[in-house]
Amino acid sequence: PTWSQTEFAFASFFARANYNYKGKYLAEALIRADGSSRFGENYKYGYFPAVSVGWILTEEDFLKNNKTISFLKLKTSLGVNGNSNIPDYQWNSQFSVVNNGYNNQTYIYPVRRENPNLRWETSTTYDAAVEYGLFSDRITGEIAYYYKKTNDMLLNVTLQKSTGFSNWWDNVGSVFNTGVEFAIKSRNLIGQFTWTTDFN
Question: Distance (Å, rounded) from C-alpha 75 to C-alpha 62?
């Protein structure tokens, strides 16, 4: 029977800092360094920072005792993520062996092309949102805008036959998504019998 075995190594390092001032000014910063053996020798490590800030307005004096607005928060964030979801060994070359070939000779020929520049796919996401609660949080929800752009997309690309190879994994192209999200939840009845409504 034929069988194969693969393995890969993954290393991560990160640092994070949080800031909270009087329960109303919030901030967080994060930096990650991720390394994967699945990528070429020139780009094994990727660096992914993120930062977010928030402001809880209902902790301010001008809204603290408001009878209508029980909670109001503004928040925004910007961050970068990495993707390494590809098969093992795709950055280095691979050879195949033919035994008892022409004139009973053994032949070795390349079946995968080396790509030392194969690197992390990165996604940069920005969002800004408002969280709210009304009438002692009987009505809560969020309105958010988001923008996400992915660069260096990992794709299995078909090569021209004149190269001698059929395909290889490479970083090709980019894509972006953007939109607005809206969510609301109402607690219509509370007590022994509860009734809530969710909409997004």
Answer: 19
